[in-house]
Design a protein that fits this description.
3-stranded antiparallel beta sheet; about 65% helix; mainly alpha
């Protein structure tokens, strides 16, 4: 049955500033729903029916959001560490994807025919679909962030009183930096060194570029940082460090 998207009540669940490539999001969304990855991979007995992505924002139908919230409330009463196990599973699948990418990243694409290229693209979509289990993964935003974390903050405020402002950053800060944060810290250290020595260490800059160039990709958008991009970013940080 054809559904008019204008008649669905949509709920905004996340913003990323840019949409995924249309064919990618359609492929991983279809694979996730057809294979019921929320249930088969994450032990979550519900696969949402409607997903909308436009203007860099992600939306789910309100009926889907309400159903997922109800299930999560019940699940967390039965299994308080549900999100921990969800995160462990997602991390494992992410590492599987990265290991596979390391295997194919140096592929001589011009030597492959369309059938072989299509198989590689399908494998990428399949692994990505398992990680994101669209649209279950957005429960992380509208439930964990908006409900669980908000309630946690309210409870901590009651306990700590005036000390909350001094301690909440330490309480809510992840114990490990993301790769983006790691790159940023490394670039800042390189900028401080550049300021101190009054010259750019080209060897260290190139090593930094090779390590982190991929971070300027967004799925199928972009080509990564070029060495010139990284040099310009270092110059900007060096100016701030002076």
């Amino acid at each position: 049955m054809k559904i008019d998207p204008n008649k669905i009540k949509w709920v905004h669940v996340a913003s990323r500033g840019k949409n995924h490539a249309v064919l990618l999001i359609d492929s991983i969304g279809t694979l996730s729903m057809q294979n019921k990855y929320p249930e088969t991979l994450y032990d979550f007995p519900y696969t949402a029916k409607y997903y909308l992505q436009c203007n860099g924002s992600r939306h789910l139908a309100k009926n889907d959001v309400d159903a997922m919230i109800n299930i999560l409330h019940k699940r967390l009463r039965q299994q308080p560490d549900f999100f921990y196990h969800y995160g462990v599973k997602m991390k494992g699948l992410s590492l599987e994807l990265r290991e596979w990418i390391d295997e194919v990243k140096n592929t001589k694409w011009k030597q492959l025919d369309n059938t072989k290229i299509a198989k590689i693209i399908f494998k990428h979509c399949q692994l990505t679909a398992k990680i994101w289990a669209i649209p279950f993964n957005y429960a992380y935003y509208f439930f964990l962030n908006d409900i669980v974390i908000e309630q946690f903050i309210k409870d901590i405020k009651k306990r700590l009183g005036k000390n909350f402002e001094k301690q909440h950053i330490a309480i809510l800060t992840p114990d490990k930096n993301s790769e983006i944060a790691t790159e940023r810290i490394a670039l800042l250290k390189l900028a401080l060194q550049t300021t101190k020595n009054k010259t750019v260490d080209k060897q260290k800059l190139e090593a930094h570029w090779k390590r982190f160039a991929h971070l300027n990709n967004y799925y199928y958008w972009g080509n990564g940082y070029s060495l010139d991009n990284m040099f310009d970013r270092l110059n900007e940080e060096t100016k701030r460090a002076r």
